[in-house]
């Protein structure tokens, strides 16, 4: 009989797994044995069997492979990042909005005033979780703007393993709560594949929404990869009286819903933490917590709005707010004391004193709701932090709380908007129209955003906004970090230049886990960030930054940081100007600015004229970095990229057939009926007693279309950005029996093909719709304009019922199930084709535009 000793088993294990930094516990081969892994290969190779196998079990020796665990005393990690929040949003860095949870971390740890983003959400998030530049991992822009180039395809390649995957394979419990804006739009449906979802990128548990933003009262919500609707049954009874179209303000009555994602997400995160702890108290956890706040729509509870309103923080207007914040920042020492505030941009943002009384009233309401949203979110983050303490884990937990994935958003434009979807379709509702929604601001009846004047103030001491990669207002965030077991220099400030790509290498260094060389047999790209773990020690408080060079590029605006200097392109487009003629040569057709950030910390003094050689040198450095990190080809287009063709389950298909109800198809895989002619044919059977309900719909309350039976009468209804509804309705209810209902729309424009030529000449045009019942025309109406670019992105294409919100509150409320039998639904699409003459004209126009801006 063979016998393998414990020592022999240990040798066998050592041969199977290299011994570098290996730590083992328990008796080798026993069920309780654990081991660390070298980490250079994920998953780690299976160890050789260390027991004995004879013909009979009684003569054999069992042996269990050890359970993989992180290095001894590996910390828990809570990685938080808020959304669309500039440097001055939080109270820690001089803002007026109370954020006590962030203050708690700052007081028990470190404050960082030079942590950089990419100027936009998806790109920053991809960089944060991979430790690589955003173009390197396919996120040069947001997923909804993806194009067919490696730096812009919205695919995090298999050679760029995330921090979730690395930590999971090294024994951590991993989770992701909140916003996931890193799944390609064409992989966001229930068809999958799910490899680019959080659960496919190393996060074992996901609770959140897929896309850029979400209605916090009723989001496009998932648990792992299953869509869920937990707010159903928690609805309030809010109603908005729109019966008087001449009313200055539409009153809101009733009780607010009792469910909001901001709280529900914290509840779920805490539940997950307790579940892991109670199952295995010793397993370290990695919790990635990324709430939707403060991205539009701003949806706090009324309780928080009332709290902020009572503080009267904004009554003096946005210019006074900016000045007050600037002085706060100097007093707190979070900015150098000798900085100058850049001028107020009167040419794009009207001074407060020039506004009408209605505008002031509206704008104050807008910003109070925004502030309430920020404060509410911070409060719920505090509950998650408190749960770590209650579980006895906080002392050995690294809490990284990053304020914003980019600067404050100005995508509401100078006047703000009650419907952000309107911005993405180049529609800016007037103050008079928005005043009607004053009392409803922040409720489920608005998809609201604030005036860009507040956004400029919330980026103090910098200027410009989200999207502006060449200005610090777009990229300079702030961050607080606590780790009581390691960081002892409590409350101190760190000013070293860092970037979100530095977070992954920092975490790996302090845990003692190497970046893997291979994952699933695939050679990994090297990390591109630089660890800032050295800043945790007080002796390095004033040490030079180890991150020496960093490029920035977003939609044709770009900059380069190198060793204290910043070369920038002058801003040539406000974020709300998405439909103008794009710069056709964004690399060269620029005005260059140069800043010595050691002297002009907030980018207030341009010294390009004094250092032409430096400008030339750094411009070449940018080109070198751009080549290295997949920045080329550069494009300055914005809306055109949203409308551009990309992979989809419906791409290239002109006929779509459905034979049974189906809900939840996201817009990226839904039939796209903008800027085209189309015919929708429904074959249904009406039961005795009649029928009603939704046949098919796409979008929701803030933009979309619906094809339904209302009181038995066929209806086709276009919701034009919650500003206008164009409706075709049959005069008679359908009798029992089988019927064919057809809606046919003939589009007037040239279609999306014009965008290829730097022109929007073919989009958003009108057309004529015809509704037929059993071959007979029952309604014909012309629609003078159509939605040009996008429907409501967090609402889906549904057949047989309507999920989340309906497209016309006056007609029905979801789910509005179809009580007739759907036999068949057919959608035929007839997209406009450009003639050679059309192409010649568009190309000539593009050449003329290019020559005009050179």
UniProtKB/TrEMBL annotation:
Transmembrane segments: none annotated. It holds the Pfam family Sulfatase. This is Arylsulfatase. Residues 75-513 form the Sulfatase N-terminal domain. The keyword Signal applies. Coiled coil: none annotated. Its EC number is 3.1.6.-. Keywords: Calcium, Hydrolase, Metal-binding, Signal. Residues 1-21 form the signal peptide. Belongs to the sulfatase family. GO terms for molecular function: hydrolase activity; metal ion binding.
């Amino acid at each position: 009989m063979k016998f393998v000793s414990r020592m022999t088993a240990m040798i066998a294990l050592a041969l199977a797994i290299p011994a570098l930094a290996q730590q083992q516990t328990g008796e080798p081969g026993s069920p309780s044995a654990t081991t660390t892994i070298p980490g250079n290969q994920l998953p780690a190779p299976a160890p050789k069997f260390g027991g004995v196998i004879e013909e009979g079990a009684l003569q054999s020796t069992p042996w269990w492979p050890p359970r993989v665990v992180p290095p001894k005393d590996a910390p828990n990690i809570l990685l938080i990042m808020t959304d669309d929040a500039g440097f001055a949003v939080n109270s820690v860095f001089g803002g007026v909005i109370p954020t006590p949870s962030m203050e708690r971390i700052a007081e028990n740890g470190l404050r960082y005033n030079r942590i950089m983003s990419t100027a936009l959400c998806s790109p920053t998030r991809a960089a944060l979780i991979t430790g690589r530049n955003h173009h390197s991992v396919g996120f040069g822009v947001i997923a909804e703007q993806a194009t067919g180039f490696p730096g812009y395809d919205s695919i995090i390649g298999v050679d760029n393993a995330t921090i979730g995957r690395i930590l999971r394979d090294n024994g951590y419990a991993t989770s992701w709560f909140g916003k996931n804006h890193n799944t390609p739009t064409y992989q966001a449906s229930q068809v999958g594949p799910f490899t680019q979802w959080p659960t496919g990128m190393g996060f074992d548990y996901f609770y959140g929404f897929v896309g850029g933003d979400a209605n916090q009262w009723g989001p496009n919500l998932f648990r792992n990869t299953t869509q869920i609707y937990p707010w159903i049954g928690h609805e309030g009874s809010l109603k908005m009286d729109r019966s008087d179209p001449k009313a200055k303000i539409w009153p809101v009555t009733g009780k607010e819903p009792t469910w909001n994602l901001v709280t529900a997400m914290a509840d779920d995160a805490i539940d997950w933490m307790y579940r892991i702890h109670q199952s295995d108290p010793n397993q370290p956890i990695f919790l990635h917590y990324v709430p939707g706040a403060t991205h539009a729509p701003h949806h706090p509870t009324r309780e928080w709005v009332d709290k902020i309103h009572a503080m009267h923080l904004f009554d003096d207007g946005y210019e006074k707010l900016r000045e007050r914040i600037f002085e706060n920042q100097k007093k707190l020492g979070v900015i150098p004391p000798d900085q100058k505030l850049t001028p107020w941009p009167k040419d794009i943002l009207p001074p407060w004193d020039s506004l009408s009384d209605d505008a002031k009233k509206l704008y104050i309401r807008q910003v109070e709701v925004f502030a309430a949203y920020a404060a509410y979110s911070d409060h719920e983050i505090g509950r998650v932090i408190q749960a770590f303490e209650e579980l006895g884990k906080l002392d050995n937990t690294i809490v990284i709380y990053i304020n914003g994935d980019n600067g404050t958003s100005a995508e509401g434009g100078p006047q703000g908007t009650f419907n952000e979807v309107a911005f993405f379709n180049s529609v800016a509702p007037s103050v008079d129209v928005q005043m009607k929604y004053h009392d409803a601001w922040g409720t489920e009846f608005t998809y609201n955003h604030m005036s860009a004047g507040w956004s400029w103030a919330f980026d103090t001491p910098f200027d410009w906004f989200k999207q502006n990669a060449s200005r610090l207002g777009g990229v300079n965030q702030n961050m607080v970090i606590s780790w009581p077991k390691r960081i002892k220099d409590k409350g101190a400030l760190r000013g070293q230049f860092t970037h979100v790509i530095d977070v992954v290498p920092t975490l790996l260094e302090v845990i003692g886990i190497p970046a893997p060389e291979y994952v699933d047999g695939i050679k990994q790209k090297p990390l591109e960030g630089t660890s800032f773990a050295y800043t945790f020690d007080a002796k390095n408080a004033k040490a030079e930054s180890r991150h020496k060079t960093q490029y920035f590029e977003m939609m044709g605006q770009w900059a380069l940081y190198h060793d204290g200097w910043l070369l920038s392109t002058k801003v040539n487009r406000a974020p709300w100007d998405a439909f103008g003629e794009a710069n056709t040569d964004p690399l060269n057709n620029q005005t260059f600015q140069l800043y010595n950030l050691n002297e002009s910390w907030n980018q207030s003094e341009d010294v390009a004229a004094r250092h032409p050689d430096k400008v030339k040198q750094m411009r070449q450095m940018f080109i070198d970095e751009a080549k290295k990190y997949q920045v080329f080809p550069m494009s300055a287009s914005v809306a055109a990229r949203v409308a551009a063709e990309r992979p989809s389950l419906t791409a290239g298909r002109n006929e779509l057939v459905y034979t049974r109800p189906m809900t939840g198809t996201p817009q990226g895989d839904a039939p796209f009926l903008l800027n085209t002619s189309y015919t929708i044919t429904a074959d249904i059977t009406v039961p005795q007693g009649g029928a009603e309900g939704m046949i098919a719909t796409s979008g929701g309350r803030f933009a979309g279309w619906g094809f339904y039976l209302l009181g038995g009468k066929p209806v086709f209804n276009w919701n034009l950005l919650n500003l206008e509804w164009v409706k075709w309705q049959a005069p008679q209810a359908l009798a029992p029996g089988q019927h064919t209902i057809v809606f046919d729309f003939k589009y007037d424009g040239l279609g999306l093909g014009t965008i290829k030529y730097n022109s929007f000449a073919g989009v958003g045009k009108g057309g004529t719709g015809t509704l037929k019942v059993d071959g007979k025309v029952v309604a014909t109406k012309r629609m003078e304009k159509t939605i040009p670019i996008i429907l409501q992105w967090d609402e889906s294409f549904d057949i047989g019922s309507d999920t989340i919100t309906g497209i016309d509150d006056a007609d029905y409320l979801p789910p509005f199930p179809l009580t007739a039998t759907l036999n068949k639904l057919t959608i035929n699409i007839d997209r406009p084709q450009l003639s050679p003459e059309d192409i010649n004209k568009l190309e000539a126009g593009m050449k003329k535009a290019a020559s005009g801006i050179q």
